[in-house]
Structures are given as structure tokens and as C-alpha cells.
């Protein structure tokens, strides 16, 4: 079992292509199914200490994995039963079914067991599940002590993470060969429980990955405040939001933070307040301009955004500034940080999964797009993307986005490229939230950034 951090994410078509290559290179479909099923059985055995296992098998190869797993459990002396919703429809699954010597119960009549393995549907599910499947599945998962899904939980849409059926979450999902969008995109990610990857010998690679902890560089003896990064945060109508961004930048590792424009009284002394002016932005030492938190949407705000863009400094564009942004693609290194509402306003016509839409938006804007949410997607114009799936839900509180813009600004000013800066910032922000515990406010969050950063050195 492998942790999924940093692993490639493949959609169903990419997964099938990788599987076909492995088969073409000489490993047959049945051999792959044997590896998958035996590894599932091994994990189940380790986790269940001899308790009875009920394996639910569907008609396709996901069901085939289930037949193999149940047979392997029996061979190992483990009590295992099978319940199926249909007969196998693929050659490999039929062979696996034929090798199972025990009875096959009807899914609708199967009695609950303490351990349930869901091998009904995998990446082949392509339409809503009927009640004759959903209801027993709900009943059996609901009555199990431990539920484990093979590849993906039955009822989720592999490629976009939507749900074809309201079925309870499982405790553990064993992803086969690669992570799929359904493991990291909501709402299906929340149905997967813990996710572990099983390596079944299919080579996978791709430009979309699960987020992983960054390896940050501590300052060296030669560094000074400017080389560590000067962040200019542009303030506006609601100076508190800009103050949060400035604090996020300072505690997120910047060497120097300037707040341009009106400031609140309660600002750390280390954050330098300056009048907003084109000259202040033109300082060549400014490594990143953060604009948007609390900026307002009036003429003055628009003028500040225009001047900030004209300064040709690397930019983090958030909040109100996203509302003022036109269609023109960025000409300087730029990171846009929209939440769902802002994304819909800017890129509402795009189709596909959240990952596909984020990549298309990045291409159109010629900028890195941080499409925020419980499943934040960081996408680059060249098609790379990182999905951050496990930020604490406590982050859904006012002002945390302002802090994020500041943290990303600090990474950018510190010399990271736009994609890395955005990915690092999102990771540090989520890690700070984890450390902050429940019910924090955005001001508290910033206070946990140094420890989050320290964990990445
Ligand atoms: N990716 C890989 O390299 C490997 C994948 N394997 C397994 O193969 C799976 C994919 O197998 P399949 O392509 O056969 O697909 P599935 O086993 O996911 O399901 C396809 C079957 O379900 C039916 N079906 C789809 N939606 C339905 C619905 N709503 N109600 C009723 N029936 C429905 C289809 O008609 C088809 O018969 C993976 O998820 C994985 O478990 C493994 O066997 C080994 C290797
Ligand atoms: K499944």
C-alpha cells in the first residue's frame, strides 16, 4: 500500500490506455486482475483479524478483482462470502468467477457481515445506479464494522468526482494502479475514506498529481530581507483583509512585507505601511504584488489594479481584483486564486471536471489558477495540475483566502516559479489550518504558518 501524496492522477481513459500498454507488453488482463485481487485480499487480511468478509461483486473487471480477492482470502483460511448483482460480462471476470468454489449470493438477499469489500463497480460505472443495487449496498455498508472499496467506491463518477448514487462513505479505498479524479474531487473524495494505492505493475505517469509536502529551502547565511522576498500587498476599501494577506505573507516566509494604502491599527510592526503609488510598486525589489483582498470594486480599486498590472511585477490576484479583471491574458507571471463563485464569473463557460476546467482556465488566462475549495486545484497553462484534497474543512471561514493570497505571495517573492509558489502556498495554508485545530479565525491561522513552514524544511 502506498500513500497517494504526489502520485499521478489518471482519468478512466488514461487508466485504460496505461493498462492496454501493459497488456501489449505481455502481462495479460487476467494476470493484472490476479495481482489486483490478491493485493486487495492481503490488505483485507491485515486489517480484519479473521472477521468474516463479504465481497460484493459486479459484472465487470472490478467484480473480477472481487472474485480473486475472495478466493485468495479463503485460501488463506479467512471466512469469506460473495454476493453479486449480475453475472460476469468480461473474460477475465468470468475466469475469476469460475475459480471461486463457494456459493454466490444474490446482492439483494445477502446478510450483513462485519467486513464488506465493495467490488461492484470501478472505473466502468457510467450511469446512475438502480435502487436494486443502491439499497443493499447502503444496508451492507451501513451494517459493516469496516468497509473497503476496490479501486473506487461504487456509485461515484471516476472522472469528475460527481455521485451517481447516494451511498454512504466507505472507510478505506484501495486505488488500483493510479489515483483517479474521484479520489480527490468532491463530493466523491469524501466517500472514499482513507485512500491507499496498490501497485499492480501498470506504469503510470501524467501532468496531474496529488499534492505533496514541499521541500522548502531555509534562508542561507548570504540571504537578506530582499533576497528572501519583498511582497507588496495593495490595500483598499476593507483594510482588514489586506492586513490578513500581509500577515500571511510575513508569517509565510517573506523577508519584507509592505502594505500599500490604508492600513488597520492592529498590524504587526514588522509590516511596513506605505502610501499607495505607482512608484511604490515600481521598486525593482518587489518580488510579488498581492492585490484583491478587501480592494473594493470601485473606480479607485480599478485604478489600483491597472497600476499594479502596469508595474509588471509577478502578481497574486485574489478576491475583488478577480471581479475587476478583464479577459486579456496575463503578460507577467500571475496567479489567480478564485473560489467557486469567482471561477464561475470568470470561466463559467468551461466544461469538464474541476481539474479540466482549472487547466482550461489557466490556458485562457495565461496564468496559474488556484481553483479553491475543499478540493483545491492548482493548474498551469502548460497542462500541469496539482489537486489538494485534504485541507481541513474548518478553513471555510472568513479571511482565510486573504491569508492564502499572502502566503502564495511570499513563496513567489521568495523565488519560486508561479506553479510551485501556488502549490507551496496551498500546502502551507492547509498545514497551518491542521495545526490550528477547530474553529480558528483567519488571524489565528496566520500564527500557525511558521510551524507549518518549519515542517517543510
Ligand atoms: N486499471 C487497471 O489496470 C486494472 C483494472 N482492473 C479493474 O477493472 C475495473 C474496470 O473494469 P470494467 O471496465 O469492466 O468496469 P467495471 O467493473 O467498473 O464495470 C463495468 C460493468 O458495469 C456495468 N455498469 C456500468 N454502470 C452500471 C450501472 N449504473 N448499473 C448497472 N451496471 C452498470 C457495465 O455495463 C459493465 O458491465 C477497474 O475499476 C479495476 O477494478 C483490474 O482488474 C486490473 C487492472
Ligand atoms: K468498487
UniProtKB/TrEMBL annotation:
All residue ranges annotated as the YjeF N-terminal domain in the record: 15-208
List of residues binding AMP: 372-376, 401
Binding residues annotated for (6S)-NADPHX, in chain numbering: 61-65, 122-128, 151, 241, 294, 339, 402
UniProt cross-references to PROSITE patterns, sorted A to Z: YJEF_C_1 (PS01049), YJEF_C_2 (PS01050), YJEF_C_3 (PS51383), YJEF_N (PS51385)
Protein keywords: ATP-binding, Isomerase, Lyase, Metal-binding, Multifunctional enzyme, NAD, NADP, Nucleotide-binding, Potassium
EC number: 4.2.1.136, 5.1.99.6
Catalytic activity: (6S)-NADPHX + ADP = AMP + phosphate + NADPH + H(+); (6R)-NADPHX = (6S)-NADPHX; (6S)-NADHX + ADP = AMP + phosphate + NADH + H(+); (6R)-NADHX = (6S)-NADHX
Cofactor annotation remark: Binds 1 potassium ion per subunit.
Gene Ontology annotations of biological process type: metabolite repair; nicotinamide nucleotide metabolic process
Signal peptide extent: none
Sites where the protein binds K(+): 62, 118, 154
Cofactor: K(+); Mg(2+)
YjeF C-terminal domain span: 208-456
An example molecular function term from Gene Ontology annotations: ADP-dependent NAD(P)H-hydrate dehydratase activity
Quaternary state and interactors: Homotetramer.
Protein family membership: Belongs to the NnrE/AIBP family. In the C-terminal section; belongs to the NnrD/CARKD family.
Function as written in the Swiss-Prot or TrEMBL entry: Bifunctional enzyme that catalyzes the epimerization of the S- and R-forms of NAD(P)HX and the dehydration of the S-form of NAD(P)HX at the expense of ADP, which is converted to AMP. This allows the repair of both epimers of NAD(P)HX, a damaged form of NAD(P)H that is a result of enzymatic or heat-dependent hydration. Catalyzes the dehydration of the S-form of NAD(P)HX at the expense of ADP, which is converted to AMP. Together with NAD(P)HX epimerase, which catalyzes the epimerization of the S- and R-forms, the enzyme allows the repair of both epimers of NAD(P)HX, a damaged form of NAD(P)H that is a result of enzymatic or heat-dependent hydration.
Name of the protein in question: Bifunctional NAD(P)H-hydrate repair enzyme
Amino acid at each position: 500500500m502506498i500513500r497517494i501524496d504526489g502520485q499521478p492522477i489518471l482519468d478512466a481513459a488514461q487508466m485504460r490506455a496505461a493498462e492496454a500498454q501493459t497488456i501489449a507488453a505481455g502481462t495479460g488482463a487476467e494476470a493484472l486482475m490476479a495481482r489486483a485481487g490478491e493485493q486487495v485480499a492481503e490488505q483485507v487480511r491485515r486489517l480484519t483479524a479473521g472477521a468474516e468478509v463479504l465481497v460484493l461483486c459486479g459484472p465487470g473487471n472490478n467484480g473480477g478483482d472481487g472474485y480473486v480477492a475472495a478466493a485468495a482470502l479463503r485460501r488463506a483460511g479467512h471466512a469469506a462470502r460473495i454476493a453479486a448483482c449480475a453475472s460476469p460480462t468480461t473474460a477475465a471476470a468470468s475466469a475469476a468467477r469460475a475459480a471461486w468454489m463457494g456459493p454466490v449470493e444474490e446482492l439483494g438477499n445477502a446478510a450483513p457481515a462485519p467486513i464488506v469489500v465493495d467490488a461492484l463497480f470501478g472505473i466502468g460505472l457510467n450511469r446512475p445506479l438502480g435502487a436494486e443495487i443502491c439499497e443493499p449496498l447502503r444496508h451492507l455498508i451501513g451494517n459493516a464494522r469496516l468497509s473497503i472499496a476496490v479501486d473506487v467506491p461504487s456509485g461515484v463518477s471516476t472522472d469528475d468526482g460527481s455521485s451517481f448514487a447516494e451511498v454512504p462513505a466507505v472507510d478505506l479505498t484501495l486505488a488500483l494502479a493510479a489515483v483517479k479524479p474521484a479520489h480527490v474531487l468532491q463530493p466523491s473524495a469524501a466517500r472514499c475514506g482513507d485512500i491507499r494505492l496498490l501497485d499492480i505493475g501498470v506504469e503510470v505517469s501524467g501532468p496531474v498529481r496529488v499534492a505533496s509536502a514541499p521541500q522548502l529551502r531555509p534562508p542561507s547565511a548570504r540571504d537578506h530581507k530582499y533576497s528572501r522576498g519583498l511582497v507588496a500587498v495593495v490595500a483598499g476599501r476593507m483594510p482588514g483583509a489586506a492586513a490578513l494577506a500581509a500577515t500571511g505573507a510575513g508569517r509565510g516566509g517573506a523577508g519584507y512585507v509592505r502594505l500599500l494604502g490604508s492600513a488597520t491599527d492592529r498590524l504587526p510592526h514588522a509590516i511596513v505601511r506605505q502610501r499607495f503609488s505607482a512608484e511604490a510598486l515600481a521598486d525593482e525589489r518587489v518580488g510579488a504584488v498581492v492585490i484583491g483582498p478587501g480592494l473594493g470594486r470601485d473606480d479607485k480599486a480599478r485604478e489600483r489594479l491597472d497600476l499594479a498590472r502596469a508595474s509588471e511585477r509577478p502578481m497574486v490576484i485574489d478576491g475583488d481584483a478577480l471581479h475587476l479583471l478583464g479577459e486579456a491574458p496575463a503578460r507577467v507571471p500571475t496567479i489567480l486564486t478564485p473560489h467557486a463563485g469567482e471561477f464561475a464569473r470568470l470561466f463559467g463557460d468551461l466544461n469538464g471536471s474541476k481539474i479540466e476546467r482549472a487547466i482550461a482556465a489557466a490556458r485562457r488566462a495565461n496564468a496559474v489558477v488556484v481553483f479553491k475549495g475543499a478540493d483545491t486545484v492548482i493548474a498551469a497553462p502548460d497542462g500541469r495540475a496539482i489537486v489538494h484534497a485534504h485541507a481541513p474543512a474548518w478553513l471555510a471561514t472568513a479571511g482565510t483566502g486573504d491569508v492564502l493570497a499572502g502566503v502564495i505571495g511570499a513563496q513567489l517573492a521568495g523565488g519560486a516559479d508561479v506553479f510551485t509558489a501556488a502549490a507551496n502556498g496551498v500546502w502551507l495554508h492547509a498545514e497551518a489550518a491542521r495545526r490550528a485545530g477547530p474553529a480558528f479565525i483567519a488571524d489565528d491561522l496566520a500564527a500557525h504558518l511558521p510551524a507549518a513552514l518549519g515542517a517543510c524544511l
